[in-house]
């Protein structure tokens, strides 16, 4: 029995600058691109399929929603407790 044919996948990563990286600890964005052959035999990229998946996986919560008028909240993550705090200058600080 032969193995199923896998479509080639290309992952592109865009990293932040070195100065920003030292402040933000290696934030990066991954874009998943799956090439497919068109009816003319050309290789085309269908990123629209992945946009729906990305939109479902990527959610944005406002800090107002998280803090609900308080100066800080605690977040449980992987058995650890973290504090998310809003500063007077409008910055957010996450500490363990």
Automatic annotation (TrEMBL):
Pfam families in the cross-refs: hemP (PF10636)
Stretches the record annotates as Disordered: 1-29
Stored InterPro entries: Hemin_uptake_protein_HemP
Biased composition annotated in UniProt, kind: Polar residues: 1-10
UniProt biased composition (Low complexity): 11-29
Protein name: Hemin uptake protein HemP
Lineage of the organism: Bacteria, Pseudomonadati, Pseudomonadota, Betaproteobacteria, Burkholderiales
